[in-house]
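Anyone able to model this chain together with 6-phosphogluconic acid?
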Amino acid sequence: MGQKLRIEYFVEPDAAALARRAAQHFVEVTAQATAARGRARLAISGGSTPKAAFELLADAQEPLRSAMPWDKLDLFWADERCVPPDHPDSNYRMTREAMLDHVPLAPERIHRMEGELAPDVAASRYESELRTSFRLEGAELPRFDLIALGMGPDGHTASLFPHTAALRETSRLVVANHVQNKDAWRITLTAPVINRGASVFFLIAGADKAQILREVMLGPRDPERLPSQLIAPSGGILTLLLDKAAASLLPATGGKGMGALERKG
Ligand code: 6PG
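re: yes, here you go
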């Protein structure tokens, strides 16, 4: 807390260009990680925005698919709905249909949150999965090479929703979080785990996100109301991949397509 955070935002003209930019970002960061460390561990979000990027990564006609080092990456999730993996609301199902069914990622490299289990059981099992996969000891946090986040119109990210218990969790890696206004349970990585990520980015599209994005990035600090403000990667840089509509209330990029802000983390 208190450390300066540099927020770099990249603005694409429309949703299709944003999806391509996001897919390229996945490939670039994953390739850097595998070149440096021989492997890459990614945590992705669900919702609707990332779907088009996942489809591009899976498109056999696209160079991106063959550029992705599938044999060296392990895929995790930032959050999941507490539903079975074949449920229409499942983040895993969306990812499987958009990408996993079409790429050479081995099943043992796909680390699904088990939304079909009791929420606390699913959270504990995923925490154990992280401890095993990252060979964690004691209070050590997993350091994902890349964490892809979305932002809801209420300022939530992953399943860190406004005024929910998960926002105040500072020791667990993964928790079950009850979301009152959805009357639903979620499984989510906690903010400390997300902030430990080597590279963390938000992927945000649409005019309906412009106001909340401005509040999160430029407004007074109020993470209980704006949980996305909890995201302040320890490396001091946060990346935003935006379409023009979502970026419309941020300082203009002056045609360069890229802007930067500073905020107290
Ligand atoms: C989820 C996501 C969630 C998502 C935001 C944005 O489980 O829904 O992980 O955090 O990123 O709600 O969702 P959209 O991309 O659909 O706007």
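The chain has one domain: 4-259.
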